[in-house]
Each structure stands twice: as C-alpha cells, then as structure tokens.
C-alpha cells in the first residue's frame, strides 16, 4: 500500500499531516529516508520508522460514540450533519461507518468501524445481538405492556416483533422504562409503544451486545474501544 496510507492507518495523523512528516525527513523505510508519499510498502515485511520509532500499522478502527440528537447515522447526507462529521480527520481517514442506525432524534450508544465482518456479525438477525434503550414515555406503562412486549407486538405494517424485555423504572402520566430488543426494524421502539397506545418522548440507546455506553462521554463525543472491548465484542 502507499506509504502515506500506511502511516495514516497507524494513527499518526491525517494524510495532510503525514505528508508534512515525510517532508521533514522523519520517515525511514528499511533504514533509508523516504519523502515520497506515493511509494508502496508492505506493512508485514518492510521496516517503517518515524523518528527511529517503529510504526505499527492498523487495518481496522473501532469507535464508541454518544450520538447527539439531530445528527444522522449515515456516512454522508446532503441536508443534515452526520456522525462521520463529528470525527477527527485521523479517524475519518479509516472510512468507518455506523453499525446499524439510530434515529436522528435518538441519542446514545453508536458503534462505528470499518470492520465489515464485525458489522455483519452484530447486525445479522440470526445472531440476536441485544440492544438496550432508555425511554421517556407519554402514558402509563403497565404490567400488561410488559407481557405484550414479552410476547411480541404487532407493528403498524403487520410485522410481529420478536420478544422484548421491558422494565418499568417509573410509571405515571409519563413513564420511564428500559427496553431490550434483539432486532432493529425502522423506528422499532417508537412503533412498539405506538402498538400499545403510547408515545416515546425521548429515546437513548444504553448498550449494544456486551458493551455499555461510556457515561463519561458527553453528547457528540467518542473514543476508541480498548483492545479488551474489541475482543469482548468479537466474542473472543
């Protein structure tokens, strides 16, 4: 691959920043100074160093974001700001994509990666990856709703959902709940509550699979997953 791509994929910086480092003479390949960004190197066999420190190439990137309201879960959009717009250039360079979707007005846990195999694993219906949401509901959520969700409810298009685990945190004219589901139909949580005559006023995803949202992340912030979190996510 091109030297500038390899360096950028090593977390050193954006392509622009990498080109500055090359011009400064700080990069050597197999002991020889290289300033040409276009030369090709093999990350497995070539010894690439930056200021005498070995460069470790990374193919994949894994990010956890606390998605804010008003931002769309897409790689590009002509009208709205996307989750990719919130990333630094050094992470954009990897061309990550959101794993699944969160509605524009839904906040919370969103995973972004360029690892297509992991994305497929997490989104495949046959793997039944659980996702847990917190919601503020207009209307009194009852034990009947818990039973209905446990059996699966019929959505407006006739689709019967897989069983969901509904937990009531508080119940009154407005209620707070947590709901765990294993599928991700369009607007599913909102439509499940509409099916029992209630309205979702606020929705936040708390977790996906074994990973929970890092509560230290402010809305719009993100961080790379730790090696342990990536391993857990992959089921290792």
From TrEMBL:
Q: GO cellular-component terms in the record?
A: cytosol
Q: What is its EC number?
A: 5.4.99.-
Q: A Gene Ontology molecular-function term?
A: rRNA pseudouridine synthase activity
Annotated GO biological process:
enzyme-directed rRNA pseudouridine synthesis
Q: What class of enzyme is it?
A: isomerase
Q: Residue ranges of the RNA-binding S4 domain?
A: 1-59
Coiled coil feature spans: none
Q: Which keywords appear in this protein's UniProt record, sorted alphabetically? A: Isomerase, RNA-binding
Database matches in Pfam families: PseudoU_synth_2 (PF00849), S4 (PF01479)
Q: Which family does it belong to?
A: Belongs to the pseudouridine synthase RsuA family.
Q: Which PANTHER family match?
A: PSEUDOURIDINE SYNTHASE, PSEUDOURIDINE SYNTHASE FAMILY PROTEIN-RELATED
What is the protein's name according to its record?
Pseudouridine synthase
